[in-house]
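Standup notes
- HV: blocked on the assembly model, inputs below
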Amino acid sequence: SQTIHQWPATLVQPVGSPLSLECTVEGTSNPNLYWYRQAAGRGLQLLFYSIGIDQISSEVPQNLSASRPQDRQFILSSKKLLLSDSGFYLCAWGAGPYEQYFGPGTRLTVT
Amino acid sequence: EDQVTQSPEALRLQEGESSSLNCSYTVSGLRGLFWYRQDPGKGPEFLFTLYSAGEEKEKERLKATLTKKESFLHITAPKPEDSATYLCAVQAGANDMRFGAGTRLTVKP
């Protein structure tokens, strides 16, 4: 069966510091991978998606970036965090244009 | 613009009191409508996919239905463990999934 991991689970970072969140998927090959952000009381906002290694599409212009160095690894990064980057970050995988399966999430607080 | 609206924002039920959650959508070329359950501090858990009007799916006390403009998640005789936020999403493009803000359900014993 497929499993998706995210780490860290929680993170507190000062404004202006760098960020690296990691997501890995087990039990499937060549998955579509997604990064979402969920603000309190709001729906999920798609940030990036990837259909293959080094193939990244950005949905929302911002100071975040994503990379996919391996088939089942997806990384979300920032060089300098803003207060507005605080939120719950979710990684998901999917097999084509069908349902997506989510990881446990990372709670990021920028202070 | 593609849009997903869920109502009510919050719903409080007594154990055993059946009700329905609504998800209305406007999208050109619906490829699928999805329901998820999300517990506090956790990632969404997939429940159902519906592809065409008239389709229904069931799982335990939950039943999802779909029309051309909206979907309902019916909860029959809910239990306290059904308390969660229920999210609706629509797939408009190949990698374009739009989520509603969710309905926060509380079931009191």
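- HV (later): unblocked. Chain B touches chain A through 25 residues (CB under 8 Å). The mean pLDDT of chain B is 94.
- Next: hand off to the docking folks.
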